[in-house]
Amino acid sequence: MSLLAVQGVSLAFGGVKALTDVTITVEPGTVTSVIGPNGAGKTSLYNVISGFYRPQQGGVRFDGADITGVKPNRRAALGMARTFQNIALFRGLTVLDNIKLGAHHTLSTGLLAAAWYAGRAAREEAELRREIEERILDLLHLADWRDAPVSALSYGLQKRVELARALAMKPRLLMLDEPVAGMNREEKEDMSRYILDVREEWDVTVLLIEHDIGMVMDLSDQIHVLNFGQRLASGTPAEVAADPAVIEAYLGEAR
User: Fold this and answer.
1) Does the pTM of the predicted model rise above 0.70?
2) Does 251 share its domain with 191?
3) Most buried one in 108, 141, 148, 233, CB count within 10 A?
4) Helices (H), the chain
């Protein structure tokens, strides 16, 4: 069974069709990429998957269950986490505090106990901090910056903190929206390695939107290509790279 199945999804804003009858699947344990020209509908598709948009037609299934009408916070609780094109961190907070925010939905402490910060609330907080420091900060090489304000970090490090915050949600499906946009070559290589490490060490399935075709071809098990809101092609990296329609619509532009 596919972990994620988008089935015949159509989405329109007034007379503008953002997606038309889009069907894609994401298999467990894979890195699956969605590529296409600017305006192809990639982010709209992500917004449908994560629950920010509800399609006029079609639906979304996660681990076999229909989640088309499920709110974004409930999807997070089911095991879906997402990063965004533009950095969406709290710049006045530290690296550690930003990452801890990602785990909010995993905590069981009630409002009263959290307000007093005693007993179970304190124990949960200590356990969360220990898990972040031992699993996430070490994995992404962020330990040296854990107490630094996010505003003091370089762009590349801030993108890494976004990934760390998504991991704190303990996702089964990690949705990355242009994770290496604006990075230099070394930062891109580091991020690619972290994505593969996350998949292997956390047993996380990755869904990736990215314009860096070299990175997409290196990391992906499966690729879906969108163009003008429709699925143009799907297949392995080799199959997609050799598809004449994909070359004409997208890959040819990058050469």
Assistant:
1) yes
2) yes
3) 233
4) 42-50, 72-78, 95-101, 111-116, 120-131, 138-139, 155-167, 185-202, 213-219, 237-241, 244-249
